[in-house]
Design a protein that fits this description.
mainly alpha
């Protein structure tokens, strides 16, 4: 459920131009949708069980890519840790 919530949050951030548009994921998802909806398949759908596996494989690939994009989005929300140098550390190293 968290992925779904973060997906819509990411989509809203993309629309507001606060997060870069994931072109690669979008194009692969679009090509997958065209492949799944087209009547031409690598394995014809009339073959029992085998006909659906190529469609399912492409759908799982796209879902994995979307999940990676969501993880990148989550990482962009957390600020990087600050590198703070204590002045006392600098004095100790000069000796």
């Amino acid at each position: 459920m968290r992925d779904i919530k973060d997906f819509f949050s990411m989509a809203w951030a993309v629309l507001r131009r606060h997060y870069p548009f994931p072109w690669k994921t979008f194009i692969v998802a679009l090509l997958c949708a065209v492949y799944v909806l087209s009547p031409v398949d690598l394995l014809p759908d009339v073959m029992p069980l085998l006909g659906i596996t190529d469609d399912a494989t492409f759908l799982l690939l796209v879902l994995a890519m979307i999940r990676q994009e969501i993880q990148k989005y989550r990482a962009s929300l957390t600020p990087p840790p600050e590198n703070v140098i204590d002045a006392g550390d600098i004095k100790d190293h000069k000796k």
